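Section: Multi-chain targets

For targets with more than one molecule, the full set of components is provided together so that the structure can be written out for the assembly as a whole rather than chain by chain. Components appear in the order listed by the source. The example entry contains two components.
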Amino acid sequence: MASPEIEALTQALSRLPGLGPRSARRAVLHLLKKRETALDPLLLALARVSERLNTCSICGNVDTTDPCSICADPRRDARSLCVVEEVADLWALDRSRLFPGRFHVLGGRLSALEGVRPEDLAIDSLVRRVADGGIDEVVLAMNATLEGQTTAHYVAERIETYPVRVTQLAHGLPVGGELDYLDEGTLAQALRARRPVA
Amino acid sequence: MASPEIEALTQALSRLPGLGPRSARRAVLHLLKKRETALDPLLLALARVSERLNTCSICGNVDTTDPCSICADPRRDARSLCVVEEVADLWALDRSRLFPGRFHVLGGRLSALEGVRPEDLAIDSLVRRVADGGIDEVVLAMNATLEGQTTAHYVAERIETYPVRVTQLAHGLPVGGELDYLDEGTLAQALRARRPVA
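Its structure, encoded as tokens over all components, is:
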């Protein structure tokens, strides 16, 4: 149909999460029709990011600076450290603006099935950050999956000898969750962690 | 949250049709994490398209060559010409692989409301293509909207003096359409254009 260059662009776009072949084609058409306002700005933005992209040597976030903009932000509370599995989790938490501290990205979760061992994750560097001092609380914000929780337990054990408070995200009913539609695991967690009515 | 470069990329992506701020962020994360397999190929594909992008001087299609790959394709039947409003329509028809001929993109539709007059559309160039000869049939494939149909009538009038067969897409029930859910306009069209059962 279209030239190989346009086909290649459609393919590259359709590999993005959330874009299928159909929406990629629509996006390409939009780019072709709005060269000045869509194609060229996107090209420039991509080129700039590609030029400067790197992984933060402190926390493992991806950013265009090192240290990343979170680690470099003096308004961030350096005494609170939130440990997450992936960069996506860091972004999700940061977007919520609820956590004022800094982060540590493990780069995955322990998994016997996928052969992910502690040395494959950024756990040693986390222990070093905690050992270096200046941190009061480590919040374990792993996914509420079996592997996430196994990872959380392992990380907690590795840092239990240091004088930091280790906490983890609460498990229970999601906001708007209807009992009727929730899985048994969530219900069991919510029941087990029930609290007195204030 | 992220650096200005990453924010700019997220914004550029979120302006694509089909991507909101949330999915743009997911897409950016994907690009950042898969630099070699996602970010750089997309950058390259965009750069190549941006370099060569142009509008076909014959039919108005956007492509990286001029004439576009459809006009330049010798396997295409040059005697059939399909007139569409927008490049998106050309692509949709071409994707269906049902039309073996060539195209002509008007670049819009007549609209008193939006102040779009015949001279704002590529109608003169269509008349010239028809006047030049070698065309047997002109298929008017405008949208089944009031403005699309007004445009189709106008175009039909402009080329009626030439020895070409002028046809238009059939209107009626869409495949899978249930009477119960169809609008009255479609039902009226389908009834008016009813055909003997073969």
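The longest strand of chain A covers residues 77-84.
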